[in-house]
Amino acid sequence: MLVMPRDAVMGVDIGTSSSKGVLVGLDGAPIRSAVREHTPTRPGPGRFEMDPSVWWREFTELARELTAPGDTGVVAVGVSGMGPCVLLTDEHDAPLRPAVLYGVDTRSVRQIRRIEERLGAEEIIRRGGSALSTQAAGPKIAWIADEEPELYARARRLYMPSSWLVGNLTGNYVLDHHSASQCTPLYDTLACEWYAPWAAEVAPGIELPPLRWPGEAAGTLTARAARETGLPAGIPVTTGTIDAWAEALSVGAQNTGDLMLMYGTTMFLIHTVPEPLTSPSLWGTVGALPGTRNLAGGMATSGAVTNWLRDLFTGTDHTELTRLAAESGPGANGLLMLPYFSGERTPVMDPDARGVIAGLTLSHTRGDLYRAALEATGFGVRHNIEVIEAAGGDIRRVVAVGGGTQGSLWTQIVSDITGRPQEVRTTTIGAGYGDALLAAQLVADVTVEDWNPVREVVTPDAQNTGRYEELYALYRRLYPQTSSTVHALAALQER
To answer: Which family does it belong to (predicted)?
Structure first.
């Protein structure tokens, strides 16, 4: 008997440390997944870049691996990627240089000051939704124009990882509204369109892409892309978006009052609000769905610190270190960490911040250090939540997603520190699953509630909250007490 392939959708996300693909049935059940690891280049202090050829090569490898068994037929594709990133191409759409990555790349401080002087810091927040920071794409473009003027003179188009994949898959030059809203100050978040006067000021000569919403079709797969990926020509491809927003969609965290916590290499927070809100310490953006607005935050490191510790402690893995951290207990036996190992984004907004580990003695163990890193993320989340609410946010539900939700310890620590329950959905594999959901919605009538119901709710443990109240007060004091010292050290690191 002839067995017909099962219809499926594919989602691919280009992340900081890996590209991940997932094949999902139209019922929401994951069929298989695949990963390709990579490492950004670091050409200088505070600089993080990536060759875009990695993105397309890994997409084609993932597509072929996911479909190799031949038991599925892909009917739509969704994409996302880290961002906002800046990839500039020439008149032939050839990349001119490696892409400058999002807020982990802190090179654009001088450009931020200049743009603020020209356009006005308060007016940038009002129209652009966010204060200029090293997260924003606009100053990164200005850095290239300042430091590499001959190269910039040849620049014609702006891409991010998701739009680069879309361009290779469909031949179309488009970007989603949410990604555009992180191109501060090029995008008007009040009008939801590019703001031509500021675009001409900050990114002269760049043909900015037409805008669509992440779930809209960007086009269909070309014959050339079909040959390179093994996917069927003519299937629809979503416009896509930045990874954290795809993750929020994957767990249904897009309703007013929702807060998504993304446990990954970095920690990301997205709060959905009924109307535009702004804060000098957060990012005000348009959402992933038409008509939605967000107040968002992001820590420069979270999983990156635990990965660093794993690599330092040769011969151990995250499972073993998590077991040791659980044995360490709340407070990590008197250790306190500032997780600013790559500077810090919100709400500190300090690219020259650095990591601090306070209270070390000769008796402290690997488990204590790992526990302190997990707790540092929790303290950073609480700090962001307090600033979100001070800006007018109203957090009614917290939904967790990402690799860090796989074990219970990290999410439990964050709930204990913040005093807030967290919903964990059945599938928490991340942005690729959200990409697949948007792809499925191009061809079928599906909802996230059908695809991905709630699996558990992590509730705060009252026995730990008192200890964490004391430690959180110390955490908030530690940065201002050490900032002048770490700033001086950061300057030495740049020599």
So the answer is: Belongs to the FGGY kinase family.
For residue 1, pLDDT beyond 60 = no
**In terms of domains, do 349 and 264 share one?**
yes
Q: Tell me, rounded to whole angstroms, the distance of Cα 295 from its chain centroid.
A: 14
pTM (global) more than 0.85: yes
Q: In the beta sheet, which residues pair with residue 387?
A: none
Alpha carbon 413 to chain centroid distance? 21
Which residues fall within 8 angstroms of residue 288, CB to CB, at 6 or more apart?
176, 178, 213, 214, 215, 241, 245, 246, 248, 249, 254
* pLDDT (0 to 100) of residue 250: 96
Please say which residue of 218, 243, 268 terminates a domain. 243
Check if the beta carbon of residue 439 is closer than 8 Å to that of residue 11.
yes
Give the per-residue pLDDT at 3.
46
Residue closest to 198 by CA, chosen among 308, 91, 116: 116
* 480 preceded by a cis bond (ω within 30 of 0): no
pLDDT of residue 103: 87
Of 313, 279, 345, which is closest to residue 106 (Cα–Cα)? 345
